Amino acid sequence: MEDKTLRCLQNKSPRFTLGSVGPYDIQVNSLNILMRDEQVSDEVMNSICDILSKDRPGVVHINCQALTKILDGSKRAKSHYFLKNNILERATEVFGVYLENGNHWSFFHCNVDRRCITYFNSLGETEWQCQAIAQHWSAFAASRGVKGEWDLKTTKHNLQTDSVSCGIHTLAFATEFLKAGGFITSFQCPVIQQERMRLSSHLFESLDRTKKCGICAKNISGRKKMACTCGAVLHVLCAATPMCYICQEDSNPLAQISLPASDTAAHSADPDVLVETSASDEGSALQQGWQKRCSTQCAAAA
Ligand SMILES: [Zn+2]
Ligand SMILES: [Zn+2]
Ligand SMILES: [Zn+2]
């Protein structure tokens, strides 16, 4: 992955869908925000966790929308319409990211057989947070047939020193924790900007770019197709030259093509969440988007 490709994204239409990871669509803007000094968006958090769960049999990723409801203690999380009923049956480990107070990312993992939870918060883990998480997870697990007491452990780590990098700390920890099979005793987050670039290029390389046309971004199925040299699949009818929107030089008039109106894809639907959330439901901060900074509330909690 060349940095050049990532850098050129700054000049591309922010809403253009680059590709997908599982059920999550990634737009130009998703990656630009990941590279900049800003809060990481939920589709990026979900995608990178989805990538981390691949090739790890028994390791189940729960998306941030669902996990946040569970760990907030939402009544709806225990309902049988929420997530697949047997989600814990096939799992030896479950993990995901938790959006606290609608603006702060943290990491949750549990080993189902050992009834052991690991919680990581880049602002530090308070006693009351640990208790609430253990209690809410235990109630959810019991509703799915996994009963018993859960232990919660934390890891010694450096603290976040700004108010926007919790997502980066969280993803860096998730990567190291899962690679080590859960056996880490301490964690030091890499230099933030380097980690942003590593995650961006890893995410870009992991994108499935065969489901949507690399020029018009509409579904590829059922029409004559071809491929750009980068691997992106294109409609033959869209490709005046055989080059996707991202590979086109910005001086090329083709780059001026009009893009389809995007259907507010920032929060893509997830098939695991069977029932749409209503605005009155708990955790509606997810629908409203979060403030751009970790809240003083969560900063004070540290
Ligand atoms: Zn935060
Ligand atoms: Zn097309
Ligand atoms: Zn291309």
From TrEMBL:
Gene3D superfamilies: Adenoviral Proteinase, Chain A (3.40.395.10)
InterPro entries: Papain-like_cys_pep_sf
Record SUPFAM superfamilies: Cysteine proteinases (SSF54001)
Official protein name in the record: Uncharacterized protein LOC113074321 isoform X4
Organism of this sequence: Carassius auratus
